[in-house]
Amino acid sequence: MAKINRRGFIASPASLAGCSVAVFAPSGASASRASATGAARPEKLPAKGALFSAGGKLMKTVPLECDVFVAGGGLAGVCAAIAAARHGAKVVLVQDRSRLGGNSSSEIKMHPLGVNSKRTGWREGGIIEELKLENAARNPQLAWEMWDFLLYDKCVSEKNITLLLDTSVCAAETSGGKIVRALARSDTTRRVYEITSKIFVDATGDCRLAMEAGARVMSGRDGSKKYGEPFADFDPVGTRQGSTIMFTSKLCDKPVAFTPPAWAKKISPEQMKFRSVRGDGLAYGYWWIELGGDGDAIGDNERLRFELLSIVMGVWDYIKNSGKFPDAANRAIETVAMVPGRRDTFRIVGEKILTQHDLQGKWREFDDAVAVGGWYMDDHPAKGFNAPDRHPCRQFAGVPFYNIPLSALYCADISNLMMAGRNISCSHVAFTSTRVMSTCSAVGQAVGTAAARCAEIGISPAELRVDKRELSALQQTLLRDDQTILGISNSDPLDLARSAELSASESAQGSAPQNAISGVAFDSPDSRANSWVAPIAAKPSITLSWKNPVRVSEMQFSFFSGCAPLSQSLSDYVLKSMHRGAQKELARDFDIFALLPDGSERKIAQVRANAQRLVRVRFETISAKALRVQFLTTNGSDHVVLQEVRAYLGA
Length: 651
Fold this sequence. Notes:
Blueprint: H1 13-17, E1 22-24, H2 31-37, H3 48-51, E2 60-71, H4 75-86, E3 91-94, H5 117-120, H6 126-138, H7 144-156, E4 161-164, E5 168-175, E6 178-186, E7 191-202, H8 208-212, E8 217-219, H9 224-227, E9 243-244, E10 247-251, H10 281-284, E11 290-291, H11 301-321, E12 331-336, E13 347-348, H12 356-359, E14 369-373, E15 377-379, E16 394-396, E17 402-405, E18 417-419, H13 428-434, H14 437-457, H15 461-466, H16 468-480, E19 501-504, E20 532-535, E21 541-559, H17 572-577, E22 587-595, E23 601-607, E24 614-634, E25 639-648
Parallel strand pairs: 2-3, 2-7, 3-4, 7-18
Antiparallel strand pairs: 1-8, 5-6, 6-7, 8-13, 9-11, 10-12, 14-17, 15-16, 19-21, 20-25, 21-24, 21-25, 22-23, 22-24
Helix pairs in contact: 4-14
């Protein structure tokens, strides 16, 4: 392969078509050397004058130091930053837009997808579950700008996060196989930030930080010869999935006319053969208005924006004026996105490359699982809307869930670089599942948690991976933070509940109180093996007892939060199943009592108006023979469902 210029990473489809996989080497190093050694050639940061020759004299340089630097403020980056900050790391998070959330933001309006909770009975858990539950409770109107604001609030409320909006990574300096510092430029504030950090996280989606650092990246479809994947020949090698512009419409109380602009694409029935305009689309737009998989979604962004907008206007003209859709007579377009939502650009080469085989069962062999996925293997034709003779997607539902390993989340070339989001280390077939935002969020939480630990003790992610004690501690930390990981149970030696005897005032649905310390905090739809259930009308209580008094200052609860789709969305499918407000299944009000060594009982804490699945209650350290939790109300369900209870001394 020819050398790729550092400022010319974007390859044409023709250049990709002859490769089994497009792997881009850093400038100054041949592809064969990069592939053979797995090491990127260190590069010094270009002189500021070279970087900023246009208007550079107006820019002010601002040095920043942190433990974890996160580039990219989509949901993966947000979850990575929050996780790292909550585990004590000083974090700098930069986002190149004025809003957080990436493709889920009000600028694009794509709803986060992931595990099919109706099928599994559970969702990803962790921070993304926290965000979804809070959004349902605080934003029942599902205003997209309030979703943006919730994400902003979460980040600025973390004391360890420095958030820089309208700021783009533009360069990186490497030495000894590590990133030494990164530059991020904000033309809005005329600032150039020089950021030094212990661990760097690329959550840009487009691998910007990794590519600036000279790391190898992959792009496009690999072909079945590369990894022996049966699904890999869906489209030509090197092509990708496209970008989409979403729109929304509102229902008015009288007919509303629509006159398209002169440049709108004229749509024929033949072009709509496999593209339904009923269902979600009348209110929520069409994900299948997609282009660019046969080109360059980054370099062609302006052309794609225009062409996608022309299709949006043309499709709406077809709906309103063809006479085929009388139900649309009273509908009017309310919003049209001006930012194409990208699906598919580059992926970073990690120690492990996740493939179709892993998603279809080999994931059970991972000893370094840190997150879960479960969306379909969902591929789209590279030509998108310009392939009217093909269905707009191929979805394989035979993979209900799988684990994602830590080894696919750190760079093979740069020892202190991790990745979170759609740019993780995977084949294109695996990418068609891992790319969705709830999965990216779970990966972000895992990466942020691992990054904080690496920064704290001064090791690389690869070193953490091979240290069995540290790896196990990471997995247990993620479980404690309500991250779903399949096949791993709570074995936290600090959890006092594991040594307690559990009893309850009553139980229902074949459950038992001891189920709440089974070590697993979720159930399938037809099981209560890991849940204690009781009728809320009885104001039931569950009690943890110890043979000898224990010192305790914290209790932690994981409640069942429902298995309906839950997301910021305007999709009819989601809205029909989703409860807007605090989820009915969640315990709302409850009290905690301690049985003291002298035999007296004292109320030590109470929770009111809870709307979260994971609830941590801290109180003054006491010596207790037992802890009794009495549940008073739920948010609407007839039963309280407790899936895990823990107890700790100290934070």
